[in-house]
Every structure is written in C-alpha cells, then in structure tokens.
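Subject: Protein entry, chain in single-letter code together with its fold tokens

Area: Proteins and the way their chains fold up in space.

Attached in line: The record itself begins immediately under this heading.
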Amino acid sequence: MNSLVFDPAAKRDRAVIFSVLAVLSLLAWVFLVYQAWGMSHMDQVFMLMPDTHLWRPVDLLFLFVMWAVMMVAMMVPSAAPMVFMFASLNRQRRQNKSPFVPTWIFLCGYLFVWVAFSVLATVGQWVLHVMALLSPMMESTNSFFGGLLLIGAGVFQFSPMKNACLRHCQSPFDFIMTSWQEGRWGAFMMGLKHGAFCTGCCWLLMALLFVGGVMNITWVVLISIFVLIEKAASKGLWISRLSGGLLIVSGILMMAKYYH
C-alpha cells in the first residue's frame, strides 16, 4: 500500500477525496455560522429556527436539520483518516482487478449513524425545551443540570466503552483489515460500524453542547477540535483522561453554584 503514495493517480484520488470532504465540511460550517449569526440578530433576519413557545412538527424538522448539519461539520474532519484508508485499499484492489466500490458509499454509511444520532439529539432537545432547561440560545438554564452533564461526560472519559471506541477510531488500518466486507452493501455496513464506534466515543461530548449552547459557535469549534486531537494524537488516551478530570472538576464547580 505504501507504493500508492508515489502513484500519481493515487495522489489525484486523494486530492479529489480531500476536496470533497473539505467542501462538505466547509458548507456545513457556513450553514452553522449563518444560523448562529441569525439567532443573534433575530430582529433583523428571519431564521427557520424553533422559538421558545410550543414547537410544531416543522420546527422539529428544522432542528433536526440543524443537528444533522452540525454533526457533518464536526465529525467529517475526524473521519478523514479512515476514509482515506478505505479509498487507498479500494484503489489497490482496482489495480489488482479485484472488486471495488466507490468511497462515497462508505462515507454515507458513516454519516447515516450521525444522522440517526441527530434524531435522538432533536428529541432530547425537545424534552429539555418542554422542561424549560434550555434558553432561547439552546444552552442550559440550570447550573445543576449543566454540572451533571459535565460530570457525566467526565466520568465517561474514563470508561471501558470510551477507551475501546477511541482505540478503534485511532486505528484506521486495523479497522479496515479486520472489518472488511465485500460489495456496496458491505462498504455501507463498514461505514455504519465505524460510525457506531465514533458515536460511542463522542456522544457525551456532543451532549456538552447543551451546556455551552448548541448555537454557540465557539463552543462547537472547541469540541470539534478536541474530538479531532483526541483521535489523531498518539497520546489520545491520556488526553481523554486529562479532559475527563477537568470536566468532572468543572461540573462540581458548576453544581456548587446551584446551592449558592
């Protein structure tokens, strides 16, 4: 597979894949920034966002779209190494006259999992809205609830499930070698499996958006960068544990404010 690095055609394929992932992420980020800007200028621009009153089905639909686009923006960059690995092996198979499938099928399987997660996030936000635990900017209005989320996310960083899922996400080659399935459906299922591990690794980190604000772009960017570093760094496990300790301390301090 190392020979593919020096293959001009392989380099061209990587450039195409990189461009697609970059454009996909960029469009998603532009959408999020526009949404956040619109929410801060609600008196100046009409935004298709749910208000603080009783939500209609169309409001839930727009909220789901917002979550789905946000997951694309946040998770596609961190999935790039796995996508490149899948594409490289497929190109090698094509050169060897073996069956191969387009890389976009694998990516669709991966994104399908995060779209499903977006459904759950939408339902969760609706429940929090009904319980009056979120502000119009979609951030926690209750320091006890916010602290509880921080502590939960911190404890999860030390859990066996977190460690197992993180190790998987850090090892694209091992995943491709041990989870390979033939055909288009097999590629889609591989994307689903990788997405499931990725979701298992990051789902509570995504729940922290309810603490800092779902439409707080700074908060969204910080979580995205952390997820990327945690997966890419060779010391990702220690980064995870250090962040877990910081989250627990932050949660305790936030909950302390509730009792004062």
User: Anything to note?
Assistant: The chain has a mean pLDDT of 85.
